[in-house]
């Protein structure tokens, strides 16, 4: 499948496209043409994120019309029906200037699955304190993967259409005081990496080269490491295994990683696959 959009694409272009029947039709027609021309099995919409309820409603209309179009195209050509998916917020609602709720009924009716992005709970946008970027549990609130998945289920998503996202990268901070180094420790901005981001493979290299202290936090089911003032929050073998077991216990559709290039010798990917199929 090919994906359209992404975090750097912004929301405005998608909002304008989804706001009228004619622009939605143009978008839908072009996705089918691209998929068939290049031999893809379907298309994924990565709109991050609809920021008003009107945009969310238009997102639902887009899905309605997209499904009709791919069904009609398959019928008329005799080809297998194209798959449709979407990347979504980790919860079925987002608050910007107003509370915006995803059109769950339309998702159930029209998409083959959603990729819930269960990560980036903390990062450079929260520079004053360290945090677990993709915590399974949040002992101090509801900023967690478990809360996100349960919220989607409570909102009525068909479980097999819900896919849990996990990151193969971490976020870094610069500690205010190296002796205060747990989750939630005071920080004074971002740490090493590319604007505070480090691939999982890079985290492993950093830990080895700097003799970093590695901690598995059982409350959040996440890892962090620190060396001097550098602090990194990320996922590793145990936390990924626990997350996959949790997702499997919910009987949801599966899991995905963003992004496979961040793995180290396929270590995490292989473990996750073995855990899911065990």
From TrEMBL:
Keywords: Glycoprotein, Glycosidase, Hydrolase, Signal. GO terms for cellular component: extracellular region. Coiled coil: none annotated. Residues 1-278 form the GH18 domain. It comes from the Eukaryota. One of its GO terms (molecular function) is chitinase activity. The keyword NADP does not apply. InterPro entries: Chitinase_II/V-like_cat, Chitinase_insertion_sf, GH, Glyco_hydro18_cat, Glycosyl_Hydrlase_18. GO terms for biological process: carbohydrate metabolic process; chitin catabolic process. Belongs to the glycosyl hydrolase 18 family. Chitinase class V subfamily. This is GH18 domain-containing protein. It comes from Ambrosia artemisiifolia. The lineage of its organism: Eukaryota, Viridiplantae, Streptophyta, Embryophyta, Tracheophyta.
């Amino acid at each position: 499948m090919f994906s359209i959009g992404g975090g750097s694409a912004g929301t405005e272009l998608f909002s304008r496209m989804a706001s009228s029947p004619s622009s939605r039709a143009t978008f839908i027609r072009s996705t089918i043409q691209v998929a068939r021309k290049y031999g893809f099995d379907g298309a994924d919409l990565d709109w991050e994120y609809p920021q008003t309820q009107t945009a969310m409603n238009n997102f639902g209309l887009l899905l309605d019309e997209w499904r009709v179009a791919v069904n009609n195209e398959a019928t008329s050509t005799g080809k297998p029906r194209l798959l449709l998916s979407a990347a979504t917020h980790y919860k079925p609602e987002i608050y910007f200037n107003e509370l915006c709720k995803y059109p769950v009924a339309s998702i159930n009716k029209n998409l083959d699955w959603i990729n819930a992005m269960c990560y980036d709970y903390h990062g450079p946008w929260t520079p004053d304190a360290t945090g677990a970027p993709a915590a399974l549990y949040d002992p101090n609130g509801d900023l967690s993967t478990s809360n996100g998945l349960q919220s989607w289920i409570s909102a009525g998503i068909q479980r097999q259409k819900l896919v849990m996202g996990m990151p193969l990268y971490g976020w870094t901070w610069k500690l205010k005081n190296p002796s205060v180094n747990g989750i939630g420790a005071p920080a004074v901005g971002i740490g090493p990496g590319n604007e505070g981001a480090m691939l999982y493979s890079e985290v492993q290299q950093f830990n080895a080269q700097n003799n970093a202290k590695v901690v598995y936090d059982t409350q959040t089911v996440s890892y962090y490491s620190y060396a001097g003032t550098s602090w990194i929050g990320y996922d590793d073998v145990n936390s990924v295994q626990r997350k996959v077991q949790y997702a499997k216990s919910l009987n949801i559709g599966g899991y995905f990683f963003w992004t496979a290039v961040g793995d180290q010798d396929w270590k995490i990917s292989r473990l996750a696959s073995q855990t899911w199929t065990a």
